[in-house]
Amino acid sequence: MNGFKTLLAGVLAVPLGLAAAPADAQDWPTRQVNLVTHSSPGGGGDVMLRNLAPTIENKFGVSTTVDNRVGGSGAVAMTWMATQANPDGYTLLSVTPTQLITPLRAEGIPSYEDLTPIARLFLDPTTLYVHRNSPIETIEEFLEEARANPRGLTVGIGSAGSLDQLVLQNFMAATDIEVRTVPHEGGGDAVLALLGEHVDAVVGEPGQALTHLEDGTLRMITVFQDERLDAYPDVPTLSEVGYDVVSNKFRGIFGPPNMDPDLVEAIAEALGGLYQDEPWNTYWVEGSLNPAFLGPDDFKANLDVANEELRSFIESLN
Amino acid sequence: MIDYASIGEAFLNVMTPYTLFFLFLGVLIGIVAGILPGINGAIGISLILPFTFGMEPAAALIMMLGLWGGQNFGGGVTAALIHAPGAASGAATLFDGYPLAQKGQAGKALGIICIASSIGWFLSTILLALIALPLAAFALRFSAPEYFAVGIFGLSMVASLATKNIFKGAIATLFGLLIVTIGTDPFSGLPRFTFGRYELMDGINFLIVMIGVFALAEVLVQVQRGGVQEKMVSFSRELPSWPEIRALLPVILRSSGIGMLVGTAPGAGGSIAAFIAYSEAKRFSRKPEEFGHGSHEGVAAPEAANNATEGGAMVPLLALGVPGSGAAAVILAAMVLYGLRPGPQIFVQQPVLVYSLFFGLAMGAVVLLILGLLLTPYLAMVMRIPRPYLITGIAGVAFMAAMAITGLLFDVRLVLLFGVIGYIMRRYEFPAAPMILALVLGFMIETNLRRSLILSDGDWSIFFTRPIAATILGLAILSFLFPILRTLLSRRSSLKG
Q1: Which of A86, B3, B388, B476 meets the CB 3.0–4.6 Å disulfide criterion with B153?
Q2: Cβ atoms of A234 and A266 closer than 8 Å
Q3: A105 and B191 in contact by Cβ < 8 A?
Q4: Among B74-78, B356-360, B383-387, where is mean pLDDT lowest?
């Protein structure tokens, strides 16, 4: 059903996208770009923008600022974008599924429909990993153990109500197993718990455990996406063992409401052309992100689908 | 085994005018950042980050480490001078630093803050260099029950912070714990007690509460005291004497150890370390009655501890690649930007860089000592400002700080609310310190209690069957009963006498 919706949305989006393709392409950027994030300094969105900023400066010769509008799990930044920001294309917000989840959790917060989705840039791969000392070597063994011992395994996640928890829930439902979900105060803490062997496995991004996955302290056993990761060619996707659970942990850019569609296209195009520039390139390669560019219309269609799935997930938490 | 060549090279790297200049600059910016309310280490470091792109990674990182340490000192300075910590880590310095400065000994208060900070910083660096890897391995043995036990141990200090009336202390503690429940339920991800306000979804920043309860409440108390004509307290810029410093060495040593250990635990950080060190100093002091009235030990303990957490926080950062605090997270992000990969291998692959960081940290402590003592007489001049101007200024700073932390007008109103609450508490002699302690520890206690019970599948014995957790909980019970027993015993003996 969801797949059909995506397809339909995609089919509808293609002609729209073509129609919006500007006859006289707008020049962007020609002056200072203000990049807004809900992350505090050092957080995921902040680090992303602090890599994007110098890349834009190098390539286009304009200056940039990074603006941390922290608070309300992203609500502060979303509200500011929806009500205060100028839709001239020079104030942009970095987004992750948090910007979908927060408006679903509480009333009165602007949602993605109140802003202008510009481009999806990356997908963060979601993976399952265990400790080197674990007797579990493969995803099949993990499933066997979980079936033999319902609620016996503990699986750490970064935080409650996050996309990682949704993936874990979908994983349990699809494979008909039950494990105990252990939320932490962020992905780094979950990795620490696994390093100390206090939990049996962690669902999360490889980026948060990079050095430990590389030196073999932690062992990745499956990937929740359509294709294997380039950096881990030996780790099977979950669909290879017969279950279809794919995470949609996107990273993208929104603008304020009421932007000129030509301008939106121009920004999307400019951002989509940065993948090979430095330090952007180093940032996503080191972080194991998958470039997954979607223009404004495809991104919007993708968000519609993701939002429905998250809505039922948030309702299930209540 | 010991790589002398790398150590030598690192030493020469750090001792260049280039690196020392940036270290000096980092510490200076850090002191200013610490004094400016609302600018913490993480924000300060991310502000200078863009300027470091062209620099050598080692020098850039050393500059950031210098900023981090200087910021801890600056936070203590404002706590002592204007009753408002400029950074969260300075919270516990306020209890004795402010009374000491009010007694006219501002120079001594700042001098002790500077010396204790520098020594704590220096010692934790040495410990870090010696035992980073084994310590990281030990820290990994800490799981939810252990962190819960540490939180309870911290909370047991309420008994020694609330000396006058243990029941009022308990009420203040519970009030603090209630405030912590506002925000997002960490185990369902849903908002709780937010009254429909999205500004409350991340909870109430404890710096906001502190600025209200301490700085603004102080302003209200002073205003009521009136006496515009009143002469300003005379003050001395005199620094502490050598015998005074020597007498503080044991307390500084012990507090540095506490700070180092607490800093190693991710998420605990400078303010928790400072509180634990303060309470331990009081427990071991020969003059516990001086605490709260300008005790030198009460100033030295939290400052040594909060600077020592920096060396401690470098342990998980370097050895595990896990940041234990906001400032550490920015430094980790910077390291990744420079193409460095913190983790156990960095000690093998980049020994020169790692040793350079150690030497840079150690030199940072020396720089702080020099800079801090040079600046102290000028900083202490704040005390010369006539009281009406000073308290007006403090009120302004309090609201500005609220604005600087989040940029939300909502938080400015919160500061006002907590200022009034703080005033009422002062009026009816409810101690504010236990409330702040509960705010600092509440989240850690709640999440780790609930996480422990998920890990044990609802079995409470997890807290008694794990040796480390059980030991810490046992200490917590003793530490809770100790001040009460001592009061009872001294009463009995005085009755007999």
Answers
A1: B476
A2: no
A3: yes
A4: B383-387
Tokens of B246: 């020597």
Interface subset of B 167-186, CB within 8 angstroms of A: 184-186
> Residue A34: beta bridge partners?
A65, A91
CATH numbers and ranges of domains, chain A? 2-124+249-317 (3.40.190.150), 127-241 (3.40.190.10)
User: String of b and e for B358-378 (b: at least 16 CB within 10 Å)?
Assistant: bbbbbbbbebbbebbbebbbe
A-chain CB neighbours of B327 within 8 Å are: 42
Which residue matches tokens 């600025």?
B211
Point out the residue among A40, A282, A317 whose CB comes nearest to the CB of B188.
A317
Task: Scan residues 74-103 of A and list those with Cβ closer than 8 Å to B.
Answer: 75-76, 79, 101-102
Q: What is the pLDDT of residues B371-392, one digit of tens each?
A: 999 998 888 887 777 778 878 8
Shortest CA distance to A181 belongs to which of B450, B444, B268, B466? B450
Of B43, B190, B343, which has the smallest distance from its Cβ to A211's Cβ?
B343
Instruction: Calculate the dihedral angle through the C-alpha atoms of B319, B323, B324, B328, rounding to the nearest 10 degrees.
Output: 110
Domain that holds residue B184: 4-496
Q: Is residue A294 within 8 Å of A91, Cβ to Cβ?
A: no
Helix axis angle, B351-380 to B57-82, nearest 10°? 30
Residue A71, chain B, CB below 8 Å: the answer is yes
Spatial distance between the Cα atoms of B81 and A25, rounded to a whole number of angstroms: 59
For A47, A52, A166, the CA distances from A310, given in Å and listed in that order, are 25, 28, 8
- CB burial class (10 A; 0-12, 13-18, 19+) of residue A168? buried
Give the ipTM: 0.79
Residue B456 phi/psi, 5° resolution?
A: -90, 0
Residue of B202, B409, B466 to mutate when probing chain A, most A C-beta within 10 A = B202
Distance, C-alpha B420 to centroid of its chain:
25
How many structural domains compose chain B?
1
The pLDDT tens digits for A227-273 are 898 889 999 999 999 999 999 899 999 999 999 999 999 999 999 99
Sort residue B192 into left (φ over 0), alpha (ψ -120 to 50) or beta. Answer: beta
